[in-house]
């Protein structure tokens, strides 16, 4: 399956007193990649997919190696690990050619901004996301209720 590739520049202000990218800044990097993935690419030819809003329900981050300031950007790969009726799980790697610095995951919930409440994933959004679906190890048919699996490719 495909992964979304985002080239993220490092800013001098991203560094902390220890001379490496501060842990909180990595959340900003993930946000930049996620926004690029969902709002720049997803709408495509006039689609309103994701324009109603999404909220972040959860982040998980594994810091693997320190990242120090440099002029070359890092690459952030983003892909979908699970599509459910009311949420989507995304995974990321922040890396360069030699090193993976961070592995992370985010659960996002589609949100109706006018109504002020969560909403369901639309069929158009699901179609877009399925192109980036790469379930996490151990996921699949046994992953739980109402989800998409690679084997069955069915959403209940």
Helices and strands in order:
Layout: E1 4-8, H1 23-41, E2 54-63, E3 74-83, E4 88-95, E5 100-112, E6 117-118, H2 123-130
Any key phrases for this structure?
156 residues, alpha+beta, 6-stranded antiparallel sheet, 6 strands, 31% strand, disordered C terminus
Categorize the overall geometry.
globular
Share of residues in strands: 25-35%
Q: CA-to-CA gap between the ends?
A: 22 Å
Quote the average pLDDT: 86
The number of helical elements comes to 2
Class from helix and strand fractions: alpha+beta
Query: Cα-atom Rg, whole angstroms?
Result: 16 Å
In N-to-C order, the SSE pattern is: EHEEEEEH
Would you count the extended β strands for me?
6
Low-confidence stretches: 141-156
Question: Level of helix content?
Answer: 10-25%
Largest sheet: 6 strands, antiparallel
Can you describe what's shown?
The chain is built from 2 helices and 6 strands; from the N terminus they run E-H-E-E-E-E-E-H. It is an alpha+beta fold. Strands 1, 2, 3, 4, 5 and 6 form a 6-stranded antiparallel sheet that branches. Strand 4 and strand 5 (100-112) form a beta hairpin. The longest helix is centred in the N-terminal third of the chain and has 19 residues, at 23-41. The protein is globular, with a radius of gyration of 16 Å. The protein starts with a strand and ends in a 26-residue tail after the last helix.
């Amino acid at each position: 399956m495909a992964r979304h590739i985002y080239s993220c520049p490092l800013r001098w202000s991203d560094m902390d007193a220890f001379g490496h990218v501060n842990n909180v800044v990595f959340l900003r990097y993930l946000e930049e990649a996620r926004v690029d993935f969902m709002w720049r690419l997803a709408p495509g030819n006039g689609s309103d997919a994701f324009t109603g809003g999404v909220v972040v329900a959860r982040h998980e981050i594994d810091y693997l190696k320190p990242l120090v300031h440099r002029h070359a950007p890092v690459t952030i790969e983003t892909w979908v690990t699970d599509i459910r009726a009311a949420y989507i799980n995304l995974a990321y790697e922040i890396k360069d050619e030699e090193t993976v610095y961070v592995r992370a995951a985010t659960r996002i919930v589609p949100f109706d901004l006018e109504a002020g409440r969560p909403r369901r994933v639309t069929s158009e959004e699901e179609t877009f996301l399925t192109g980036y679906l790469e379930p996490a190890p151990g996921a699949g048919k046994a992953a739980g209720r109402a989800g998409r699996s690679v084997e069955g490719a069915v959403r209940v």
